[in-house]
């Protein structure tokens, strides 16, 4: 069995692959690694032969590695340290690209064998372009839904912090649903607008792949999204482990 781990700013996602297939996926809050509350969860996963980690949270990476070894994992590899993502990185400053963005771009490119635009809806929204020849060109970063919710609640006097969910209609008829509609439909419009411009400028024939925690909801309203793969980064990590 191979355990793929994507350590994000808000959530750490796990994917247990058995026989080449994703057998189980689960998630833990990334902040739990700081308090030590997440490590016992890994002891419930038995028979891990190999683990591969992708991380954008430097302090969490060694803690996860130690927890895996304590759980009996035989080999722990970290993308960017032990494994390189085999894309031609065309970023002006290649080290600035998050490994999760590279892994997602690689997974889409390998899956569809053509130019791809990958929209990842996590703590931040990233929209990245990879060519049909496997060159990562770069991308766009925007605030994610949770960041936007927190900003509205903390930077205004009267707007509350609301739990995000799909509003009943486009037009908000109370404050909470006005916020939800603005974020959801605003994010969908942002996605469609940026994807359209990226296609026109860099990759006219690209397939648009959505991933990340909010991807299923955004994909219902963004007409530019062609494929929904919520576990794309985990799939890419598995590909890299082979």
Describe the protein's topology:
Elements: E1 2-7, E2 11-18, E3 21-29, H1 32-35, H2 39-42, E4 50-55, H3 60-70, E5 75-78, E6 88-89, H4 99-112, E7 116-121, E8 124-130, E9 135-143, H5 145-155, H6 175-201, E10 207-211, H7 215-219, E11 227-228, H8 232-241
Characteristics:
242 residues, 5-stranded mixed beta sheet, 6-stranded mixed beta sheet, alpha/beta, globular, Nucleotidyltransferase, domain 5, 8 helices, single chain
Description:
The protein has two domains: 2-78, Nucleotidyltransferase, domain 5; 88-145 and 176-241, 2-Layer Sandwich (Nucleotidyltransferase, domain 5). The chain is of the alpha/beta class and 242 residues long. The longest helix is centred in the C-terminal third of the chain and has 27 residues, at 175-201. The strands form two sheets. Strands 6-9-8-7-10-11 form a six-stranded mixed β-sheet, sandwiched between helices. The protein contains eight helices and eleven strands. Helix 4 (99-112) packs across helix 8.
A few lines on this structure:
The protein has eight helices and eleven strands. It has 242 residues and is an alpha/beta fold. The chain has two domains: 2-78, 2-Layer Sandwich (Nucleotidyltransferase, domain 5); 88-145 and 176-241, Nucleotidyltransferase, domain 5 (2-Layer Sandwich).
């Amino acid at each position: 069995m191979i355990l793929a781990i994507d350590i994000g700013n808000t959530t750490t996602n796990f994917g247990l692959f058995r026989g080449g297939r994703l057998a189980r996926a689960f998630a833990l809050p990334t902040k739990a690694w700081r308090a030590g509350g997440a490590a016992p969860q890994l002891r419930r996963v038995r028979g891990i032969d190999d683990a591969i980690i992708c991380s954008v949270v430097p302090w969490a990476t060694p803690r996860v590695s130690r927890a895996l070894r304590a759980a009996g994992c035989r080999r722990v590899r970290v993308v960017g340290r032990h494994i390189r993502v085999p894309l031609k990185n065309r970023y002006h400053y290649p080290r600035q690209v998050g490994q999760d963005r590279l892994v997602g771009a690689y997974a889409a490119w390998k899956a569809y064998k053509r130019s791809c635009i990958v929209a990842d809806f996590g703590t931040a929204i990233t929209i990245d372009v990879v060519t049909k020849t496997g060159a990562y060109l770069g991308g766009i970063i925007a605030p994610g839904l949770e960041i936007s919710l927190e900003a509205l609640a903390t930077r205004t006097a009267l707007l509350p912090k609301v739990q995000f969910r799909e509003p009943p209609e486009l037009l908000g008829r109370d404050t909470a649903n006005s916020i939800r509609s603005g974020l959801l439909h605003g994010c969908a419009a942002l996605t469609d607008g940026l994807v359209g411009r990226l296609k026109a400028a860099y990759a006219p024939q690209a397939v648009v792949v959505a991933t990340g925690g909010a991807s299923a909801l955004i994909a219902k309203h963004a007409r530019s999204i062609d494929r929904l793969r919520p576990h794309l980064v985990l799939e890419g990590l598995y590909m890299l482990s082979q």
